[in-house]
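CO-FOLDING WORKSHEET

Operator: S.A.
Ligand of interest: zinc ion
Run index: 383
Mode: holo prediction, single chain
Checklist:
[x] sequence pasted
[x] SMILES validated
[ ] output reviewed
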Amino acid sequence: VRPEEHLTCDGEKADFIVDLSNVVKRDSLGGERVCDLNRFYALIEALVDFIHDDDVQICTIGDWSLVQRKSDLTEEEKRLVKRWRHRGLTEMYDDADPRILQLADAFPHLWVVSGDDYGDYHRVYSWLPDNRDRFLAAVPGGAGGVKVVRRIVPIKPEWQLSRKEEETLLKGAHLYDGRGGSRARTLLSRVWRCPDDDCAAFGPDTADGQPLPVYGNGVVRCPTHHTKLTDVGPNPPRIQLKVLVDGVTRARFMVRSGTETMVGRAPEGPDGVALRSSWLSDEAIRGISRTHVGLSWDGHRLTVRDLSSNGTRVREANARSAGELVGRGGRRRLRQGQVISLYDGVELVVSGREFVFREEPADDEPWDPTGPAATSPTSVHHL
Ligand SMILES: [Zn+2]
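OUTPUT RECEIVED:
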């Protein structure tokens, strides 16, 4: 594994949030030391397997105790973690939990890998208690490896919650505020600038996407430098899509509101997304147009415009049917659980936990951890 290639602080581009200490200290994952970064490397491979994507992207949130003297990470591992932070690839806090939950709240498409129940925050984030569709635990896999399994966040007895809450409100209030997600979404709708010009996250050259600022007590701060950020203007909403060829993710790209993004073998426009012929069969190359579709995102809905010669279909992600033709020149708004099919086996899907556009099942639907993704309840928090 080359961990750097999988690390990001941009929640919109990520697939997972990883509670770094929780994984690095989990002795059931092998190794002799209390803290071992190899457990995290093994987890990356498990996450690749979990979403069938070699390019899996992870927001890792660590805590400072990992790199302090008493930590038994090797000196090299400590240097490496500090370097990741300096390059804007990971974030470090005295207490990682509030930040993990801020990110999870702001980016509902992200899975959270942690064994923690976050009991202190169950009343701050109403989606947390009894959550069945977002949390994963790292457990020993076959042949000394690691795998991830879904887990349910248990509901804490009321008295226990209140006492823990009080403690947390005292010690961690500077990192979150009770207004939750709406606050985070507002922050994401602005471009922020750090007073430190070399800032990897909020410097002058970060037009391609910024991480979620840290917020609390009415102040918006840089996650790296903890300095106050300046609001320098609006940030159009964006959404990440993946190119799937025969079920394998070949590329990721962002669609921003206000611009139509063209996709095809050789699409028009400076921001066009080109499908490489090495990914495609000869039949698919013949079937897919140079500019096949145009995609627009308004912050709530994805619309596809069919510009192809041979047609574009919109189909249900979990159905076997070929789907319905959009029709040349026509537009179609995607509903929950739908994907865009450019050619048999060549699809564009919304990134995230099995696609954000999914029907929300009834509350009493039984949860089957071994069943297909179709049965997992997923809220459409993006809307
Ligand atoms: Zn900064």
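REVIEW:
Residues 194, 196, 199, 201-202, 222, 224-225, 227 surround zinc ion (CB under 6 Å).
The first strand starts at residue 16 and ends at 19.
[x] output reviewed
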